[in-house]
Each structure stands twice: as C-alpha cells, then as structure tokens.
Amino acid sequence: MRRSSRLPDHFESNPLSRLLAELQAAGAPVLDLTRSNSTACGFSYPEAAIRAALSGPSVLRYAADPRGSSEAREAVATHHGHGLRAEDLLLTASTSEGYALLFKLLGDPGDEVLVPSPSYPLFEWLARLEGLQARTVPSYFHERWHLDLGALESAVGTRTRAIVVVNPNNPTGHFLSRSEWAGLTEFCARQDLALLVDEVFADYALEPPVDRLPTALDDLDPPCPVFLLSGLSKIAALPQVKLGWIAARGPGSAASLEALAFLADQYLSVSASAQAAAPALLALAPAIRGQVLARLRANLATLDAALADRPHLSRLPVEGGWSVLLRRPALDADDTCALRLLREAGVLTHPGSFFDLPGDGHLVLSLLTPESDFREGLAQALPSL
Ligand SMILES: Cc1ncc(COP(=O)(O)O)c(C=O)c1O
After folding, report:
1. Position 188 in a domain
2. Which of 91, 92, 96, 240 for mutating ligand 1's site (highest number of atoms within 8 Å of CB)?
3. Orientation of helix 371-381 relative to helix 272-307, angle to 10°
C-alpha cells in the first residue's frame, strides 16, 4: 500500500529514546530532567473539584456547537480579559488541533509558514501533515533572544501564508518585546500574512524584561490577522482534559472564525465534559499555576546555586516558560553529550539540537522536574560537563 508523503519515512525513535528504553528495561535508575507532563511531577491537584467539574449533569447532553459552548467560551474570554469576547473564540481539543485548523484555513498544499527557530519541534510535522512546509528562520541571542525581523522578511516568498511565534518561546523562554510585536504585525500586514501566536506559557513569566509583550491581546486592533492559541494543557497544567482554543483578532477575524467553525464542524472533537468543565477548571487554574511557578522558581535557584562554583557552565536568562538552556563548553556534540550523561551519570537531558539550537554547547532542562530529582540530577550531571 502506498502511503502519503506527508508522513515520515520511518517511525524509529532517536538514539536517546532508545538508550532510555534500554536502561529502563534493565531497571537502571534514571533521573529525568526533561519531564514536561505536569500530571507526573508531584503537584497537588484539587482532585475532588476536578472530578466534579468533569462529571456535571450537562456531560450527558450532546449539544454540538462547532465553535464550542458559549459558557466555555465566556469563561475563556474572562480568563484572558483584554476585551476578548466569547464570539472571538473557537474551542479545540488541543493547541495542536488549533494549528491543524489554522493551517487548513490559511494554506494550500505547498504553501509555507515561517517559524523563528529555535522553537517547538512539533511545528514541522503539524505543518507537513496539512500539506504545508514550516520554514525555520533563526533568531539570535545577544544578551537575550531576538527575532531576526530582517531575515524573516527576506524569507517571505510567494507561497508564504503565515508566521508562527511562541510567546514566551519554548524552549528559549523569549517573550516578544513590544518593538518586535510592532515590527512583526506591521510587516505581516504589508505582506498579507497571518500571525499565529502560541501563548500556552504566557502565565509563566520568570525573568521578564520590562519591554516584554505579556500577551498579543494587549494589541486591541492589530494591523494584520492575529490568531492566538492557548489551552488548559499549560495554563491549568491539565493536558489530559484536552481543551484548547483559538482567539482571532484583526482584519477579517469574523470571517476567519466562520471558516474555522466550518472546519471544526467536520470533526466536532471537543468533548462535552471538557466544555462543561471549562469554567470550573479555569477557576481552579490560578492555584495550580501558583504551585507550578513556585517549582520553576525553586529549580532555577537550585541551578544557579549549582552553577555558582562552576564558571565554565552557565545558563541563559529564562524570561518565561518551563525550560532552561544550560550552556556548556562544546567539547562534544550536544547529542553525544546527552547520550553520555544518560549512560554514565544516569541523567536524562535534551540536547539543544532537538529544538534546532545552533551549533553545540546547549542542553535543555525542564524546570518542572520535581525539586529533589532536579537537585540530584544536577549533582550527578554537572561534574561530567
Ligand atoms: C509551544 C507549545 N505549544 C503547545 C503545546 C502543547 O499544547 P497542547 O497540549 O494544547 O497541544 C506545547 C507543549 O509542550 C508547547 O510547548
């Protein structure tokens, strides 16, 4: 049987995942400093309230609305504020599904979206599975991360339909500055491009610069079409609920939402329980986020203390998000280094190459890791760097 060329040629896992599987099968202890599944990181969730929210009486009724229930959309609009209205929103089963709908809305097979890199590695596949190509445009680090607006503008071709940015970015933690936002929206307007802004980590500012754009919704009247993506996965640390959303602003937003509703109507993938639970889960979210933020800050302080007497190692600023980039002398390739740390120190880290970090000399750690694992993992890994 022939298979679509949108799929990968093979489904083999990478050498790091293979080594991890081998070690786990052999019962070897591994300290995982890459954990991003918040439900497996020892947070204390209000279990009874979450269960109650997911099993209210309305879960027994099917009342299909391709945009999502108005009650859930009202709750999401209230969560965001900034003048967002229920009618500006469309619910999805995840941010990934939001991307899939937007790529179907914006492009034809062979069209392109531009993605500043390093960034979330899923974009390549999310675009490709919709027949589009995600073209990466390197950002650069000079005291902090910067979008290369000139390079983005030069990369725009006749098939470019949109730019995708993550605010703050994963894994660099970069918040867009207000001037980057002004430059981006102005050039998207000029080039007739849509701007997709993924703000799943926007509530997790750790070392935010004063000129950061806390959210794209600060711009009440952007000059280009802006689609903001977010969801419960990160803002309430509830990825299993499977509820995300798209907020549309700027020129043509009402018509875009109508077309998105047509697309969503073909699948109707958001469950009744996720929609019914949304208002209650959003009300619980600040308390859960508080625990996550405390964890992120504690691990960052642990890392700083561990780096204090290792001048050959450092970390990049973490403006926001759940990850930190550890900088090390590039004596070997990042992939080789991550394999070595796993094999010899029993510590799992991600090489910068997983996220398209340029060159060698970066490992990516998750600040969500339970604190004792993080401390112990650093104690075992840092002497080998
Ligand atoms: C930038 C970014 N967007 C979206 C997601 C996932 O969101 P969802 O679970 O809603 O698909 C992640 C998960 O790590 C992410 O890093």
Report:
1. yes
2. 96
3. 40
- Domain ranges, residue 116: 58-284
Residue type present at position 6: R
C-alpha dihedral sign at 289, 290, 295, 300 = positive
Q: Is 166 in the pocket of ligand 1 (CB under 6 A)?
A: yes
The conformation of residue 320, written as its DSSP 8-state character, comes to B
Q: What is the pTM (predicted TM-score) of this model?
A: 0.97
Co-location of 272 and 291 in the same domain: no
CB 116 within 8 A of CB 151: no
User: From the CA of 200, how far away is ligand 1's center (Å)?
Assistant: 7
CA of 54 to the centre of ligand 1 (A): 22
Domain count, the chain: 2
Determine, yes or no, domain membership for 370: yes
CA 55 vs. chain centroid, Å, equals: 28
Q: Is the CB of 167 under 6 A from ligand 1?
A: no
Spacing, Cα 380 to ligand 1 middle (Å) = 29
Residue whose tokens read 């590695």: 121
Q: Is the pLDDT of residue 242 over 90?
A: yes
Q: Ligand 1 centroid to 95 CA: how many Å?
A: 6
pLDDT in tens, 59-116: 898 989 999 999 999 999 999 999 999 999 999 999 999 999 999 999 999 999 999 9
Q: Which of 169, 235, 176, 165 is nearest to 209 (CA)?
A: 176
